[in-house]
Amino acid sequence: MQVIEDKYGRTFKTLRVSLLSTCNLGCIYCVQGDESLKLTNGAHPATSLPLSELLDTIRRLHAQLDLDTVRLTGGEPLLYHDLIGMIAGIRDLGISHIKLTTNGFLLQRLALPMKQAGMESVNVSLDAIGEEVFLQMSRRHSVQRILDGIDAALDCGLEVKLNAVIMRGKNDSQILPLLNFAFSRNIRIRFLEIMAMGHLHDQADKYLFTRDEILREIGRQYRFTPLDRLQSSTAGYWKTGDGHVFGVIANESQPFCHDCNRLRLDSHGNIYGCLSDNHPIALDKTDDENALRLKLEEALSRKQALKFTGSELSMLEIGG
Ligand code: SAM
User: Is there a domain that residue 267 lies in?
Assistant: First the structure.
């Protein structure tokens, strides 16, 4: 099998699969105003491809790309009707690393069955630890429910990381409380610069809280030194004097497109080579190996060389 590679040496090794494009939180960077009223609350949206079709697509992509990692996302992947079947199906394809990104709302119940089905690690998105700020960011109550989910995941042996999108004037007060919580559980937290996506695509600047500002805030309480960046990592990491590690995903101020190895598959069977790209490439179950290869080459050619340039699609649609 000849490797699909671009002129910068980039290949696809990580597949992010958006299992569905609905969510049970209404985070203000994903969802605008009263659109959140349309959010489902545990319903199974009819628009996702059936499990067998999504799995078959993953199988065909793996045959071409020899994937290292599949990350399940959405929307909210824990709302997917047969999540456990999906995880077991991916495990049976022989893909080494199965990971998931979740808001953690349903994690307490699903952590153990996910682990038993083959899940290795979960990234939990948590933008605030204070209830009022959490409500402002996500339009839902109950930080405690997410913290219980995190503890359940740790208890059953899942690797856990936290992700927090920091928005100026909204939750920048939460950086140290979130960091202290992560350190208390001995887990890694990564702070994300806001990306110009969806309804914020032309006004993300006003909310951008940069990597340097995040580091300055952390420096009020901790001393830290940088760690070497791992190949294709989205985050830069630092280590505190007492050995805790935290990261910053700085799409804007420290872009990492140059060695990006991610391919996205949405819940309708479209692929995207780049988050900056608004144009879905539709896969068809009748595509033969050659047709699929051409589509993958096209997706790879759409990767930005240097940095994310913004997208009218929200992460909810394309998969975070
Ligand atoms: N529902 C799941 C969750 O909350 O983790 C998975 C999907 S969510 C879209 C995936 C990640 O994308 C979350 O960590 C979220 O904070 C992040 N995200 C969404 N929109 C973003 C934006 N405009 N800028 C930065 N991160 C964003």
Answer: yes
Residue type, 268: H
Residue 74 beta carbon below 6 angstroms from any ligand 1 atom:
yes
The residue range of the domain holding 306 is 14-318
**Left (φ > 0), alpha (ψ -120 to 50) or beta: where does 5 sit?**
beta
**Token output for 205:** 């600047």
pTM, two decimal places: 0.96
Q: Which helix (H) or strand (E) holds 236?
A: strand 236-240
Atom from ligand 1 closest to the CA of residue 30 = 20
Rounded Cα gap, residues 218 and 245, in angstroms: 12
Give the span between the Cα atoms of 224 and 239, in whole angstroms.
5
In a domain, 1, yes or no: no
Owner of token pair 């402002």: 136
Number of domains in the chain: 1
Residue 156 lies in a domain: yes
CATH code of the domain in which 227 resides: 3.20.20.70
d(CA 87, CA 113): 10
- Residue with CA at minimum distance from ligand 1 atom 8: 320
Residue at token pair 């948590």: 126
Half-sphere exposure of 260 (CA within 13 A, CB side): 26
Q: How far is the CA of 320 from the centre of ligand 1 (A)?
A: 5
Per-residue pLDDT tens for 234-290? 999 999 999 999 999 999 999 999 999 999 999 999 999 999 988 999 999 999 999
250 Cβ inside 6 Å of ligand 1: no
Q: End-to-end CA distance of the chain, in Å?
A: 29
Within-domain flag for 5: no
CB atoms within 10 A of CB 41: 10
